[in-house]
Amino acid sequence: MANIQQVAQKAGVSVATVSRVLNNNATVSPHTRLKVETAIKDLNYEPSMLGRNLRNSESRLLLVLLPSISNPFYSEIINGIQTTAISNNYNILLCETDSNPDRENIYFNMIKNKLADGIISMDPAVNMQKLNELYEQYPVIQCSEYEEGGVIPYVTIDNEQAAYHAVKHLVKLGHENIALINSDEKFLYARQRRTGYERALQEFGFPIDETFIYHTQELKFSDGVQAMRKLLQLDRRPSAVFAVSDTLAIGALKEINASGLHVPEDIALVGFDKISFSNMTNPTLTTISQPMHEMGCTAARMLINSIHGEKIENIILDHEVIIRESTMG
Amino acid sequence: MANIQQVAQKAGVSVATVSRVLNNNATVSPHTRLKVETAIKDLNYEPSMLGRNLRNSESRLLLVLLPSISNPFYSEIINGIQTTAISNNYNILLCETDSNPDRENIYFNMIKNKLADGIISMDPAVNMQKLNELYEQYPVIQCSEYEEGGVIPYVTIDNEQAAYHAVKHLVKLGHENIALINSDEKFLYARQRRTGYERALQEFGFPIDETFIYHTQELKFSDGVQAMRKLLQLDRRPSAVFAVSDTLAIGALKEINASGLHVPEDIALVGFDKISFSNMTNPTLTTISQPMHEMGCTAARMLINSIHGEKIENIILDHEVIIRESTMG
DNA sequence: AAAGTCCATGTAATCGATTACAATTAAAAG
DNA sequence: CTTTTAATTGTAATCGATTACATGGACTTT
Questions:
Q1: Are residues A164 and A202 in the same domain?
Q2: A93 within 8 A of B85, measured Cβ to Cβ
Q3: How far is the C-alpha of B228 from the C-alpha of B34, rounded, in Å?
Q4: Which of residues 124-163 of A touch B (CB under 8 A)?
Q5: CA distance to partner chain A, nearest, from residue B276 (Å)
Q6: C13: residue with closest CA to C1'
Q7: DSSP for residue B218
């Protein structure tokens, strides 16, 4: 309720001195400092960020753009972003776009309106033209998703190599008929993971069979179910499946069970992302783990550095193959 | 980049007039309005929320306190809150407390610092004393969780009745030995659900067997696994289990499968919350559905009304029993 | 003792908007 | 043709902080 004026009056000093105490400015005598601190306590004073932010022209808010919070893939990344943000005295504003351009616009405007100091985009469906425009004037970082040959700094993993490792793991187990459940190849990561899948097959001299590659619309459970249904209808049934997301893999698992087959005895299964539910399924799911927490921390650090005017380099983080029951015959 | 002064100068009017145009104030002649609008376009002007917020002493930000975003239970509620918030020109700040008092304090201070206009708490472990203190000065709403006999307005469901319906569903299927996997009874909802469980049993003349009631520390998958393990070691094995959260139920399911038993043939299973994964399990999970989206919308509406100085009444929403494979013999 | 330093504090401008009130002008009324 | 009244627009205070610069006093230095 009280403002800095009232504190100054009560302490018998000027507002400048109160401000100096608040900001731990060295040039205040211990005696005066004490008087001010007492007045602050007495009045139950809390500095208003509204005044401070206007004067400093900053909001200390970071925007995080993502398609949907209910997608568990993002949870850990958000955690990482938040941890780093808080320890740097920033806060994050989570922006669910639902891949809806109107929503996106609302949030882009928040940056222009000074309600946020920078933006981390994790939305694969983001309007890249607008994001690039924004980048000309404001700090922007892409996390996980990025534009090939673009100018906006990003942090991500090597999707091609990760898919390669997933498929190589299956090959080493003796599988020759390995299917791929991929998402729409309009997404860069989907193209990259397909390339990795093909490289692994080629390296071991297996042909690439287009009927073994299925593209889904989205990354939902039901897409996985549908994809697996198609794959099970093939004359030559795959003995292993690599799905580019855990949610798809869990859908595939459901369909395999429904058709009376068993994982991993009849079909081995590998997912991607190591979402928390991937070890709650039966059997637990072999998957590729991205260092999600670290990716979040890194993205936040990059953005904050960028806000401070530093030059930012792209960063590629390491992935890991998590071997669990769905590939352990 | 440009500010309201520059727009005023360019348009040849005063800043007051520009502000009137921005706020759609009626007392501006069409001719002047046009001049101003042209200047705004020419300069690419965007009003600064920092200035506006200071003047209006509001931040148009709502705080949402929750233990963890990765808990899918909260996803839909958050969605509801966000939808309502946005359509009222508010934004939400998601605050993960991890039930950590330090984190909580950071966020409580944001209210005092005017960085947020109000708070919705969904954290069962929230420090009620501090929340009550806050409520004396600032708008606060509790969502889903609340304090029995407390003064802070809340929106929730009838947990006792919901548990009663869950257990009654099992009784109707012919089960007599029904176990309860409950969470820590320091939580009000846990006590209420236990009461509902007992009322259903008593109504049908079944005794209440304490060995059939297991309390978990938290609501995690691993807690469900552990609980089920204990229940399976009993001399008289339950033929049905009601778990007070889907995550617990999914853990129980995993353990039942691991022990070679089948759901629902050997043991029927009911969860609570209808999280999205509850119909991705095998078998799909019978569960109690809370109207989560609606609960979120309601909480946000209550908070915004409260910010506008209105008097707020508590609201109890309806639940629903979702019957799926895990109870369909 | 005069001049120069340094330290602590105060004065007042500033950030970018909103808005009560004053001032101007034009239209309506007599 | 004056006087009212209404419709626009401008002036300046205000929200609550930060900070460059000015000021005054104590302490050195010569």
A1: yes
A2: no
A3: 71
A4: 137
A5: 9
A6: A55
A7: S
> What value does the mean pLDDT take over residues B113-128?
95
Residue A54 lies in a domain: no
- Same domain, residue pair A110 and A208: no
**Helix count (H) and strand count (E) of chain A?**
12, 12
**Segments in chain A below pLDDT 50:** none
d(CA B165, CA A47): 50
Q: Report if residue B206 sits inside a domain.
A: yes
**CATH number of the domain residue A107 falls in:** 3.40.50.2300
Over residues B173-187, the pLDDT tens digits come to 999 999 999 999 999
Residue A301: in which H helix or E strand, if any? helix A292-307
Q: Is residue B52 part of a domain?
A: no
CA of B115 to C1' of C21 (A): 31
In the structure encoding, which two tokens stand for residue A53, read together?
A: 């932010």
A73 and A169, same domain (yes or no): no
Which of 224-263 (A) contact B at CB < 8 A? 250-251, 253-254, 257-258
Residues of chain B in contact with residue A254, where contact means CB-CB under 8 angstroms, are: 280, 282
Burial of B83 (0-12, 13-18, 19+ CB in 10 A): middle
Q: Are A62 and A117 in contact (CB under 8 A)?
A: yes
Q: Is residue A52 part of a domain?
A: no
Does A137 share its domain with A193?
no
> Does A31 share its domain with A123?
no
- pLDDT one-digit tens code per residue, B71-101: 878 988 999 999 999 999 999 999 988 878 8
Instruction: State percent of chain B over pLDDT 90.
Output: 89
Question: How many domains in chain B?
Answer: 3
Q: Are B71 and B99 members of one domain?
A: yes
The parent domain of residue B31 ranges over 4-47
Residue B88 has a pLDDT of 96
Claim to verify: residue A27 and residue A84 sit in the same structural domain: no
A109 in contact with B, Cβ within 8 Å = yes
Same domain, A133 and A172: no
Q: d(Cα A315, Cα A322) in Å, to the nearest integer?
A: 22
Residue with tokens 């008289």: B236
Within chain B, where are the H helices?
4-11, 15-22, 30-43, 49-56, 73-87, 101-112, 128-137, 159-172, 188-203, 221-232, 246-258, 292-307
The pLDDT of residue B1 is: 72
Q: Report pLDDT digits (tens) over B147-170.
A: 999 999 999 999 999 999 999 999
Owner of token pair 């990344």:
A77
* Ordered strands of the B178-182 beta sheet: B213-215, B178-182, B240-243, B268-272, B286-289, B320-322
User: Residue B329 pLDDT > 80, yes or no?
Assistant: no
- CA at B6, C1' at C28: how many angstroms apart? 37
CATH, residue B20: 1.10.260.40
